[in-house]
Amino acid sequence: MSSNNPENPYGQPNPYQQPNFAQPAGAHAQQAPYGYAAPAEDPGKTLGIVGFVLCFVCSIAGLIVSIIAKKKSREAGFNNTLANVGVILGWIFTILGLIAIIFYIIAIVAFVNSGATVNSY
Description:
- The structure is a single chain.
- The protein has helices spanning 45-57, 59-76, 81-113.
- The protein is an all-alpha fold and 121 residues long.
- It has a domain at 42-113.
- α1 (45-57) packs parallel to α3 (81-113) and α2 packs antiparallel against α3.
- The longest helix has 33 residues, at 81-113.
- The radius of gyration is 30 Å and the shape is rod-shaped.
- The termini are far apart.
């Protein structure tokens, strides 16, 4: 009982061979074999990336976009790590920015009240 296949002369099934999932003509391209559904796409994935990058450019905008991405992902049942990191970095950079602004205001007020003059030629 030999098989016509030279790679498998004894006709035994090959456990390492990939099954043939060829679809008949006219079948939908998104239809998965054996009725498995295609994995769902995270709706907040792109916004999470954008929010993460924006945190380094404009912390408040990055914080807002990351919060929106986190909310969209959570509603769809996904955990968006970049959105979570973007929210954390957005808060940290916003707080550091506010501290810097307060420091500059105090420095300017102290300079004006010190009576220092600027020499002009």
